[in-house]
Fold each of these.
Amino acid sequence: AVPVAIVSAMSRCARRGVLVKHGGALEKMAQVQTLFFDKTGTLTSGQARLTAIATAPSIQPAEALRLAASLEQLSTHAIAQAVVAAALERGLALSLPQQVEEQPGAGLSGKVDGKAVRVGSYEAIAGRAPPPAWAADIVARVGDEGAAGVYTAADRSFYAALHMADEIRKDTPRALRLLRTLGVERIVMLTGDRRDVASAIAGSLGIDTVLPEQTPAAKLAAIAAARTDGVTMMVGDGINDAPALATADVGVAMGARGAAAAAESAQVVLLVDRLDHLAFAVRIARRTRAIAL
Ligand code: ADP
Ligand code: MG
């Protein structure tokens, strides 16, 4: 049977919107040493605003956005949903994409109005090539400002770069401070995004370790390695985080806007996307453990 103190702690967490699926997770939460955070949609809101768009000379910005958003309709990625919202706000009529395939952490491809369209990260669209002249300014700004960059191609040619301002969640700095005072020794950012963008966000939050350009398998491997040194917690929102969430001693999913696959893989689900509430839950877990011992 689960001790009464643990049941009562779990219900206090639930009142804060922190769903702890079982008592074992609460006990692990009390002992976390290394804390991993995904970036996009976890440390940042993921509810990005489209602030600039640059296109190849062959296409108008509105049409570029319409094609990208048509495809993004079928993605659960936070930034994908923001691209769709930006297109709808501008009154663009989206097409239904066909033959859509998603590569978690990279982007997606499919047919839109007979064109083979791809949308996603810079690497997924342009590979290691330097940006063409029309895209250079947006690529540089995305890196400097820690924004989300979305890139698209049609029929194999790169044709648009979108600058999406993705703000750090209001409660993130406070949550990180609180977690450190609760005894978390190491905070690591584990992101699929580029190093420049990741470093801009990590620097403003005082996060010491940044692991950028992580595939879902690389995120999993980073956590598996850290587990040999102590108790790990991973917080994430995306399909690309699901394997890592399942591997950590405690996986925590952003439940309100995150992907269902993340919530299923995690032992803790934030029903309201508030990292400070997660910190309160860790404090509850530590106090409960102190009482139980
Ligand atoms: P994180 O691991 O920090 O959550 P992701 O790897 O999910 O980050 O996304 C990082 C970047 O990859 C985004 O900022 C965006 O540039 C790009 N990206 C990935 N998937 C998509 C998508 N479906 N649509 C648009 N951009 C995407
Ligand atoms: Mg994410």
Amino acid sequence: MKKYEIAVIPGDGIGKEVVPVSLKVLETVAEVHGGLKFEFQSFPWSSEYYIEHGKMMPEDGLKTLKNFESIFLGAIGNPALVPDHISLWGLLIKIRREFEQSINIRPAKYFKGLKSPLVNPNDFDLIVVRENSEGEYSEVGGRIHKGEDELAIQNAVFTKKGTERAMRYAFELAKKRRGHVTSATKSNGIFHSMPFWDEVFNVVKKEYQDVQTASYHIDALAAFFVTRPQIFDVIVASNLFGDILTDIGGAIMGSIGIAPAANINLNGKYPSMFEPVHGSAPDIVGKGIANPIGQIWTAKMMLDHFGEEELGKKLLDVIEDVTNDGIKTPDIGGTSSTEEVGDEICRRLKKAV
Ligand code: NAI
Ligand code: MG
């Protein structure tokens, strides 16, 4: 019996609604598999916790989390109780940084039963590998003077290690998919870092002769996400470029409620973290209509991460069948509740064996 210990942080708002439904789905996956067991330990760290304790998690929170196989997170943020920069930096961003989750992966695919804003979605199925620890999002730089002479300098940091790490991850992923990697560059306009990015890409790609490659400037690449997303398999991008591209990825799928993300730790020293792209959605909290698919799809990514890819694929197929049959929440044009969608996924998982 394979056993996975998972730390669960439902967090705020609809996180507390979509996480329990997703755990039920994971329990069902384990039951159907027979040789697999999940042990969940839930932590109440959230904005409400902050109001009670003056911090988002206990001092030794990270030490506690470190012992788990992975972290399954809902959403953080309740601006009515705690300012967003405090809640996000006090928990989510802290975990990403301290646990060296240097890669952020975000898939986007044409989803049966969903209305894509694209006229002809052409069955796109892509995944963005975003460098998650450096690049444009650095604290290097500063501001001086006030008034007319005021000046701000923001440096981007690209290390050979960090760049290679993201690219190798993309190539390894492509080998398991359709064998194609696209590099997001801008070496025609950015003088130092992007020619460096291209150089590293050209070296790394030599190690993967069986993988096809392409390189596009980020502006053209962003346009292609809209006009012909079907040409992409894996895209490797810097922190900022990846951030922007994945919002377009979510948009062409049709709803933020279904988009998943994974923060991957590659050195094995710390757990990885799985979360949906969406936030705590205060506007629909308590109504029972939050779409659980983003959270359930991130559970699928966790299964992949554990090496249970076959199970992951089965789960995604079932989610898509359920959506295609119209059992869906109002954000994607249905009338079902969060629980109804979850229960139907569980029912079909059992049938799929
Ligand atoms: P949001 O993603 O929570 O909501 C944006 C819109 O999408 C809302 O209209 C919401 O109802 C809808 N929506 C989101 N998820 C949905 C779902 N699963 N089903 C149906 N509809 C869904 O973003 P917003 O409103 O900007 O932020 C709300 C709070 O969440 C803030 O405190 C923010 O800081 C936090 N946040 C946290 C994130 C995280 O924990 N990773 C990511 C984004 C925002
Ligand atoms: Mg973003």
